Amino acid sequence: MAGRIPIRRHRRTKIIATLGPASAAPEVIARLFHAGADIFRLNFSHGTHQEHAQRIAAIRALEAKTGRPIGILADVQGPKLRVGRFQGGRVHLQAGQPFRLDLNPTPGDARRVNLPHPEIIAAARIGTTLLLDDGKLRLRVLRVREDHLETEILVGGPLSDRKGVNVPDVVLPIPALTAKDRADIAFALDHGADYIGLSFVQRPEDVAEAKAIAEGRAAILVKMEKPQAIENLGPILDLADAVMVARGDLGVELPPEEVPLVQKRLVREARERGLPVVVATQMLESMVASPAPTRAEASDVATAVFDGADAVMLSAETAAGQYPFEAVNMMDRIVARVEQDAGWRMITDAARPAPQRDSAGALAAAARQVAETIGAKAICTFTSRGSTTLRVARERPAAPILGLATSEAVARRLALVWGVHPLVVPEIASMSQMVQRAARAAASEGFAARGEEIVVIAGIPFGTPGTTNALRVAAIP
Questions:
Q1: Contact, 131 vs 252, CB < 8 A?
Q2: Cα distance between residue 281 and residue 349, in whole Å
Q3: Residue 2: CB partners within 8 Å, gap ≥ 6?
Q4: Is 235 in contact with 111 (CB distance < 8 Å)?
């Protein structure tokens, strides 16, 4: 965009901000972007298609104004399992008492309630644990009948209409995509969403189904929320385009002491495969109602950065909180400060996985090593589908990555990737043209000055996906 002022983040870990009632206005979205948001999340559990369309239009208008690719994550709801209604809307369940969950739609009481999900009754076994209201109440199945479950209340408390049900012990025979999800995905694809967030994945088949619907029009970001997904981790990651450690529901179905270990494992496994990985949920939760986070929350964000996550996410903090701008600004400050610490670079280098065992992986590793040896100001990656840039980002180089993409769609997806400053460039036809364009972009985006060196990496023949096989060192003329 001629005459624009380049916007450059002085950090590598990206920030996702969720839009909602507190951040729907175009001027607020612009403030959040300038405060540090790289990706905007649309939560399809809330809001209408008209509201989401207005937010998408505001993001794209902002993108056109700034000349900076901005990613959009359309997060679909997934299957929501809930109990029915109660007489008076609320009961109190006592520990040690029996409680029946059945298919009868009649409003319930302290002895029973409707469970409008026959698939749960069909999958349950004696001893199966049921969690109600985000795990606040806990039941154990004593008897399984064709139309109901007899349970014992292990942990009681108040329970009101339509509270959620979690079943951590079994794989439920339900699809990851509901009719609502399919309609939401169709809307998101038609409006140019860059990532589809897939909720409550249990099996690799769930990911394959979403990818078949998307047909490459958007990348599939798999939200890891179920213990069954952790058990099927390898096959799921083999199909996913990106991963989210969704610690909210994961923390309901797993013991709290397991969640930090699962977070580290998921980040490590995603990095090994070169998949972008997001750490999400309750990162700065107190900023929903406070202008400053707790010290524990600041440490939580820092831990995700030290672990090597590509991005950290704000949910209610920006969607419904009183201080959306302050939350993004604080997240930006925490991430930037961590990445300035010498210990962060030492840990990042120590945690680097071995190069992928092919020529493209070897060349990406070489680009990092050459850049470090000569003190290059940037690594410029030319990419038609993003694979070259993802390979270099997997190496976590000290030099920033200038991701030169030949399409807007790819540049927007790269907005999620660690260390990448995405930029849309025209197609190239020769190696000399590639070097010239990389040098021009590095200078105009503020990465390098005259006489300073950059490393350029691409695939030849140009425009052929998956052929990372050329590396050059160039000086800015």
A1: yes
A2: 27
A3: none
A4: no
Q: Indicate the burial class of 347 (C-beta count within 10 angstroms; 0-12, 13-18, 19 or more).
A: middle
Averaged pLDDT, groups of 10, the chain, 477 residues long: 70 98 98 98 97 98 96 96 96 98 97 96 96 96 97 97 93 91 98 97 96 97 95 97 94 92 97 97 97 98 98 98 98 98 96 93 96 98 94 98 96 98 92 93 96 94 74 96
For the chain, give the number of residues: 477
For CATH 3.40.1380.20, list the domain ranges present in the chain.
359-475
pLDDT digits (tens, 9 = 90+) for 100-135: 999 999 999 999 999 999 999 999 999 999 999 999
CATH 3.40.640.10 fits domain 14-78+176-349: no
Which segments of the chain belong to CATH 2.40.33.10?
Answer: 87-166
How far, in Å, CA of 406 to CA of 385, rounded? Answer: 8
Residue 470 CA to residue 367 CA, distance in Å, equals 10
Q: HEC profile for 243-295?
A: EEEEHHHHHHHCCHHHHHHHHHHHHHHHHHHCCCEEEECCCCHHHHCCCCCCH
Question: 3-class DSSP state for residue 168?
Answer: coil
pLDDT of residue 2: 45
Q: Is the peptide bond before 465 cis (omega within 30 degrees of 0)?
A: no
Report yes or no on whether pTM surpasses 0.85. Answer: yes
- Alpha-carbon distance of 166 to 153, in angstroms, equals 15
- What's the token pair of residue 82? 């809930």
Three-state secondary structure call for residue 153: strand
Condensed to tens digits (0 to 9), the pLDDT of residues 132-189 reads 999 999 999 999 999 999 999 999 999 999 999 999 988 898 888 999 999 999 999 9
Closest CA to 460 of 442, 472, 473: 472
Domain 359-475 = CATH 1.10.240.10: no
Angle subtended by helix axes 26-35 and 324-339, to nearest 10:
20
Instruction: Give the SS3 label for residue 76.
Output: coil
H helix intervals, 340-386: 342-350, 359-374
The boundaries of every CATH 3.20.20.60 domain in the chain are: 14-78+176-349
Cβ atoms 140, 127 nearer than 8 A: yes
CB neighbour list of residue 156: distance below 8 Å, 6 or more residues apart? 92, 93, 94, 95, 97, 137
CATH architecture, range 87-166? Beta Barrel (2.40)
